[in-house]
Amino acid sequence: MVNDWTKFRKFQIHWLKKGFGDADCEFLICDNVQRNQFDGFQAGRLFLEAAKGKYIIMVHLDSRPLETKKSILNIIDELDSIDPKWALIGNAGVHQKTGESIILGLRMPGCPATRHKTRFVPVQALDENLLIIKADARLTFSHDLYGYHFYGLDICDLARRIGRTIYVANLRWYHNSHGTLNEDFHRAKKRVESKMIQYRAPRIWGTNCAYLSFSGSCLMRAWAKARTCWILRNNEHHTLGERRAAWDAGRKEFLFYPAYVLLWLFKKTGLEKRRNRRLFQRQSLWPLYG
To answer: What is the CATH number of the domain that holds 144?
Structure first.
């Protein structure tokens, strides 16, 4: 989705330098320069319908690879040999059962670069700054949701329901933004929760910056908001104002304070780490680390 042609030209030059100018590559855009004609869900559906390639890379205008095309294809081939059922790859995501945020190879402004030996980690949700989609998975995005948030969670949900898998891969990547938890974000969050509660078993799902509650239970709503406040409390990616807004939203829930205390105990006593270790071992996920 392009809202600035100058930024797009710089964006395209970078990708061309990384090897994406060959005959087997194409650049697809949705023109939002004059006005926002296309949101994330609508543009995503159009991209997936129009793309001719074996892999579709959907990125933000300020998101770019630090890897060459050849290197990215090698990483994809490696994952194919491990799990040919994969449908989506990203650089940041969440493992829903443990609630762990997984980030590999991603650099952002003001954050020190970190090195990982980990190659791939299976997750159930991806951040939208990078979505590498396998074309033969035949995925799409919801028609009854709209906006510029949570479409990564949406397509990952569809992939999981048809038996496909999702991974964060150790791709060297740069994203020149930390995202904004503004009013549009919170309205989009409510829309997703309202939809999911109709057909999903009651549960809490996480993204890299918020937790959603797919339940009418006041306890689950409070627990989701407590977890959101916890991950934002020392988060260098978001402002003090965003953290305060999340805390103010949490305080509106009747059971928020007891939920936050229980969460604090769950983490500080080491119970969460022990539970997560058992979950990973039970699902045989450790071989994918390292």
So the answer is: 3.90.550.10
